[in-house]
Specification:
Pfam families: HSP20. The chain is mostly beta strands. The protein has no helices and 7 strands. Strands 1-2-7-6 form a 4-stranded antiparallel β-sheet, with no helix packed on it. It has a 3-stranded antiparallel β-sheet with strand order 3-4-5, with no helix packed on it.
Amino acid sequence: MGRRASAPVVHAAAAVPTLDVIDKENEVKLMADLPGLTEKDNDVQVTDSRLTISGEKREEIEEGGKEGERYVSERRFGSFMRRIALPEGIDQDKIDASFRNGVLTVHLPKTPEAQHPARKIEVRGVA
């Protein structure tokens, strides 16, 4: 049998979750990709001015070595934390979060004062 080429085993820290933030009329909606996690693996907290998403993805270690030794490992494991500044006008008592199919969704309802739709400003040319 030929010799197997030597490849490094890479262990990368858990990645910071990627986010989508959508500013809607009545709320700000935040979605974070957290693949491989369950709702029990992450934590969402709010303070006066920021939302913190944290958690940990634990490495699944195969025992027994039936599959052979690890050749390349690119999956990310470990703890993560992401802090997001809250916009003004969020009703912090009504913030809620749900988790489905590896996506954390946080609804940040706006206070009634912050729910005013944008007003179009006419731009005029100057002669």
